[in-house]
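no rush on this but wanted to send it before i forget. what follows is a protein written twice so to speak, once as letters and once as structure tokens for the fold. mainly i need to know what kind of three dimensional shape the backbone takes. thanks a lot i owe you, the record is right below.
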Amino acid sequence: MGERIGIYPGTFDPITLGHADIIRRGAKLVDRLIIGVTTNISKNPMFSPEERMAMVSREVASLGITNVDIVGFNALLMRFAEKQGASVIVRGLRAVADFEYEYQMAGMNQQINDRVETIFLMADVSLQPIASKLVKEIALFGGDITPFVSPQVREDVVARVKERGQLGDY
């Protein structure tokens, strides 16, 4: 049996402490974990794919995990998984709403390629409420995102909000 390769896909816009927790834990389950940074324009990203990949690379380096690679992709997840030689998709779950969506996605992915298994990791209780979308909303209205992201990601987000002139006055 060869190397077990897992993929943790996402937009990571921005990468949160919750993402970092799933990366840290997911990397223990496989020989190599590929962080698949996807382009999802429907989510109206704050950062470009290149910026997100650089951000994820920096955060992974700070975790000291050596069996993780960061790869950008803009394709069907199961095609990307096949191309990478992956046998596992790693997904994080925060709440019941996540489960319903992820369960449906796992079923669809299984129909596309039943050689790739999806595994779910429950978010750490202290990190469950964290979502990139909410982090961006808080930042856009001038709120403190310190509890949800690393200090460097906080600086990146605050700088982008100021650059776009989107700071709220609430």
